[in-house]
Structure formats: C-alpha cells, structure tokens
Amino acid sequence: MTAATLDGRAIAARVRARVAAEARAAGLVPGLTVVVVGEDPASQVYVRNKAKAAAAAGFRAATIALPAETTEAALLAIIARLNADEEVDGILVQLPLPKHIRPEAVIEAIDPAKDVDGFHPVNAGRLAIGRPALVPCTPKGVMTLLAEAGVTLTGARAVVLGRSAIVGRPMAALLTAADATVTLAHSRTRDLAAECRRAEVLVAAVGRAEMVRGDWIAEGATVIDVGINRRPDGRLVGDVAFAEAAERAAWITPVPGGVGPMTIASLLENTLIAAKARRGLA
C-alpha cells in the first residue's frame, strides 16, 4: 500500500476562500491583531504568514511587534486595550514569549470572545465539556483534513501522540466529540509503538523528529503529522518517518505542506466566528 497525501496547502486555500466569501456575504470586515514579542525568527515568519493570510481574506489585519525587553505589565496593558477595541475581533499573542513573561498570565488576560487561538481556560473548558468554543487552530485544522479525506471517525480507534494543551488535549477532545474511541498517548505510555499500531487514525504531535517509524503504523491507517522539526542539515521533517509510514498508511500528511497551512486557515475561521458572535450573527 502507498498512502495518498493529504495536501494541506490546497485544502487550506479552499478554506480561506470560503471564509473570505462568508465574511463578504455577511458584510463583515473582521479585525485580527497579532502581537509578537522579541526577535525569534520562527515567530517572525509565522506572524507574517498569519497577517498576510488575514489581509488576503479581506480582514483588517494588524501586527504589534514589541522588543524582547517588553515587560509583562506592558504586554498586559496592550491586551487590555485590544480587549476594549470594538474594531478588534481576534487577538493572538505569538508563542513562545520571552522567559520573563508568563504565558499563562497573557493567555488568561485575553477576552475569551476574542481568543482566536482557543487557549483561554474558558474556551479550553467549554471544549472539554462539549460546549461551543473557539477551538485551538491546529486541532481544528486536523479535523478539517480528516473530513476532506472522508475518514469515518464514528467508532474509529484514534491515538493522539502528545498531550500538550495546545494540540494533544484539545485534539483528543475533538475526536471524542466526533465519536471516535480515543487514546491519549505520551512519552510515558508503556509500549508506545504497540499503542500506535492499534490506531486507525494516528495524530502525532510529540515534537521529536521522525520518532514514529513505519512499523508503528497499522495497514490502512490515516496518519496526521503535526510535528515540524529542523534537522542539522536544514531539512524540515515531521514526527513521523514519512517514507516508511507511507508504505503502510492509506492517508498521510506531508511536512511541510500538511497541517501547517491548515492552522492559519483555521485561525481565519476562528476570527470570522468571533466577529459574527460579537455582532449577534452566530
């Protein structure tokens, strides 16, 4: 078996076009403000890509770039201003932050109605109990990829590898809500390879380059690789050994070009949802 590749770039382009059309049809120009602190090169790239995608969708996109020495108090004051700004529908503070700023304090300071990253405890709690919420963008994008592939989740055995609050835990919640039977596995799981082999749907989000080998994959499984890791030679690879896994899987996402573009598309979806909700149009 040779896996079919799930083209995240193409699917994300369709999602972005749909979101732009929905915003125009509703007569909305959603406002997204991205805040970045410091000069982390990867963060700078992500912020540029997010702002570019928002502007291309017809959103009002703004970026606030702050020096690395910005104090936590100063950042919280900016968030308070954005919370009160009626033209701002979505606020995203790019992570990671400098070590002297507590990410939890920053996340909790964002108005949950404008928390388009879906990280605020209110949104995380609503997701956990199955209530409508702004959902973290990467897991949301994964669900869109699974739908595009026509993967039946009802009753399916799903394994999420990684238990972060940003990807793993919300991913497990979304799959559970879709009636999959979900195992949340991690570095301390006994016989991790055997757990992965049981999966009809495997979502790898552990942050270790090519940790998941081909013989960890069940024949015909759907493999979603959330990881993005840079090798010493400069190559970008995922958490899954792609070539090996593709020999056994039915569907697989590439790195790059799989989940990454879907994360930005989902951010635009969340911003439109927030804009509609704030105007009573949801």
Kindly summarize this structure in a few lines.
Helices cover 41% and strands 16% of the residues.
Report on the structure:
The protein has ten helices and eleven strands. It is α/β, with parallel strands linked by helices and 282 residues long. It has two domains: 27-111, Rossmann fold (3-Layer(aba) Sandwich), CATH 3.40.50.10860; 136-259, NAD(P)-binding Rossmann-like Domain (Rossmann fold), CATH 3.40.50. The strands form three sheets. It has a six-stranded parallel beta sheet with strand order 1-11-8-7-5-6. A three-stranded parallel beta sheet has the order 3-2-4, with helices on both faces. The protein has a two-stranded antiparallel sheet with strand order 9-10. Strand 9 (229-230) and strand 10 (236-237) form a beta hairpin. Helix 2 (41-56) packs across helix 10 (259-278), helix 6 crosses helix 7 (168-177) and helix 6 (137-148) crosses helix 10 (259-278). The radius of gyration is 19 Å and the shape is globular. The model has no long low-confidence stretch (mean pLDDT 96).
Mean pLDDT, all residues: 96
Tell me what portion of residues adopts beta-strand conformation: 15-25%
> How far from one another are the termini?
44 Å
Query: What structural class do helix, strand and pairing data support?
Result: alpha/beta
Number of strand elements? 11
Question: Percent of residues in helical segments?
Answer: 40-55%
CATH topology of the largest domain: Rossmann fold
How many domains? The number is: 2
The description of the largest β-sheet is: 6 strands, parallel
* CATH homologous superfamily heading of the largest domain: NAD(P)-binding Rossmann-like Domain
What is the number of helical segments per DSSP (H or I, 4+ residues)? 10
The stretches of 5 or more residues where confidence is low (pLDDT under 50) are: none
Global geometry:
globular
**Which CATH architecture of the largest domain would you pick?**
3-Layer(aba) Sandwich
Strand numbers in spatial order across the main sheet: 1-11-8-7-5-6
Task: Round the Cα radius of gyration to an integer and report it.
Answer: 19 Å
